[in-house]
User: What shape does this take?
Amino acid sequence: MSDVYNWQLGRDMSYPYEAKFPDRQFAFVFNINRCIACQTCTMACKSTWTFSKGQEHMWWANVETKPYGGYPQHWDVKILELLQQANPDGQKWEGEISEDIQKPYGEFGGKTIFEAAEKTLQPESARVLGYLPSDEEWNLPNIYEDNPVGKPGVRDKLNETGAELPVHSTWFFYLARICNHCSYPACLAACPRKAIYKRSEDGIVLVDQSECRGYRKCVEACPYKKVMYRGNTRISEKCIACYPRVEGTDPESNGQPMETRCMAACIGQMRMQGLVQMSQEGTWAEDRYNPLYYLVHVAKVALPLYPQLGTSPNGYYIPPRWVPTSYLKQMFGPGVERAVQRYIQPDRELLAVLQLFRRSHTIIFRYEIEEGDLIYEGTYRDRPVQIYNDTVIAFGKDGQEIFRTTVEEPIYVRDPKHQNSI
Ligand code: SF4
Ligand code: SF4
Assistant: This one.
C-alpha cells in the first residue's frame, strides 16, 4: 500500500499503487435540480455501446430514483453498510469546510474502502472492501422510479406537507450516474491481472479486453458498481467515456474534444463535461475560468458522490435543494449546506455559468463574461435579488469561441402560419 493524498477527504490515504495523475482529467458536473428522468442519456449510451447480445443487462449510464432506486439494486446502501461495519466508530468528518481547494470539506476520519479492506475479514486476495451483486440485483435498472419517501412509520401514506420548501417532507430525486473515472480507481486496484488502466492523456479508466479473464474482482471492488460482467464473452466491460469523442477523433467532432453521448443527449440540460487540469499532487491545478473548476472549487456548488469511499470520483453533483440535509450529507459530504445555499441564491457569475450547460457538444475549456443590464430586482427569502442580463462566452481547446449566450433566455415567437407544424 502507498500513501496518496486525497483532497476530497482532506488527508493522505492508503492505496495499493503509487499516485499518478494525467495533465487533464475527464470530469463532469450534473445538476440534479434539472434532471427530469427522461432517460435519454441512458438510451444514448445503450444504443451506442451496449446493444449487443450478452449486454442486455448492461447500463453504463443510468438514472435512478433516490432514496430507494439503484442499479444494481441497493448498491449504495450495501457498500455503506460494509463501510459502517469497518468503521464501528462512525464515518465522521472532522474540521471545518473551507475555501481551501486542498481540503474544502474538512477531513474524513473514517476508513475508506481501501483502508477498511486491510482490517476486515476479506479473502486474502481482496485489496478493496466490496461485494459482488447477485444476478437479480442487476435485473431491474429502474426499480422504484418516482417512489417518494412517505410519512415516517405509516405505510403507504405520503406526508401532507410534501410540497413546501425549503425542504420537502415527501421527496425523491433523480441520480444520473456513469463511471466516475476515479483518480484512485477501485476497479483498477482490485484487478489481479492489471487489465484495467487509467489513460495518461485524459484519466479515462478502461478495461483491456485482451487482458481481462473475467475474474470480476473489479465488479466486486467498484463501490459505484460501474464495471459489469458480460456472460457470453466472460469479460468485464465498463463506460469508456466515449473516448473517440473526447479525443476529437470522432468524425463529428471536427478535431475538437467533444462531450460524451450521454452528456450531448441530455434533455434537461443538467450535464456538463470537461477536461480539468491536474497538479502532480492530485489536486486540481488552478484554472479559474474553466467552468468545472469554477463550479467545484470557486462557487463550490458541485460535490463528489460518496467521497468517503475514497476513490476520488471525478463526477460532481449540484445537490437537489428540496431534500433533507442529513440524507444529502451522507451522499455528498459536509459541503452540502454551502452548496445548496449558493445554488438557491446564485451570485452574478454563477447565474451566468449555469447558462453554459448544453449549448454545444464541444468541450468548454474557458469562459468569459460580458456584463449586461439589470433586468430584475426583488427579494427571495427576505434577501435582495438582482439579476443582470450578462453574456457568457465559451471557448474550446483551440481558444476559438464556441458560442455565446445570455442569462435571459431569448424568446422566439413562431409565425402563426407554422403554429401547428413541426
Ligand atoms: S466508478 Fe468504479 S469503474 Fe469507474 S473508475 Fe471508479 S472504481 Fe472504476
Ligand atoms: S437526459 Fe438529462 S434530464 Fe434526461 S434523465 Fe438523463 S440526465 Fe436526466
